[in-house]
Amino acid sequence: xxxxxxxxxxxxxxxxxxxxxxxxxxxxxxxxxxxxxxxxxxxxxxxxxxxxxxxxxxxxxxxxxxxxxxxxxxxxxxxxxxxxxxxxxxxxxxxxxxxxxxxxxxxxxxxxxxxxxxxxxxxxxxxxxxxxxxxxxxxxxxxxxxxxxxxxxxxxxxxxxxxxxxxxxxxxxxxxxxxxxxxxxxxxxxxxxxxxxxx
Length: 199
Hints:
Elements: E1 3-7, H1 12-21, E2 27-31, H2 48-60, E3 67-77, E4 83-84, H3 98-108, E5 118-128, E6 134-145, E7 161-163, E8 168-169, H4 175-181, H5 183-198
Parallel strand pairs: 1-2, 1-3
Antiparallel strand pairs: 3-4, 3-5, 5-6, 6-7, 7-8
């Protein structure tokens, strides 16, 4: 019988990516909604790892027989001291559109040369096993902040995040290209290596 995995998200794109990367392991990946679990703990951590673990712990308390996964991710811009960082989703307010957020970040980098516009997407995934064992994995993708948004394939900060290797923003990449190098994909591949030891 497959080991149940509950992933703390309502985002179907994330769930699809998790299922793809963990395919071949004897795991049955479910969303919170599919399991009838409602959870929205306050993210009081100071790192992506701490916030991911807060989210995972809240579900592990009610899902004793499952492996629980939760992620936290965001954009770090070196010139801005790592902003927006763990506040990426809440930058300029949670209800502010990403068009406005992206425009503001480009404005804050006005006149800054390319070599100082370095940035990365970071994803931390927390995992809690049924026996209470827990760990986190981290994935990143390095790039830089462009001078204007481009592309419509991504979401969030994708239109302003450019990758030299592809010569375009992550919002201009195909899903396959992005998954191959994405911060979440990298964190999930690291997670898979850990789960292979216990599943």
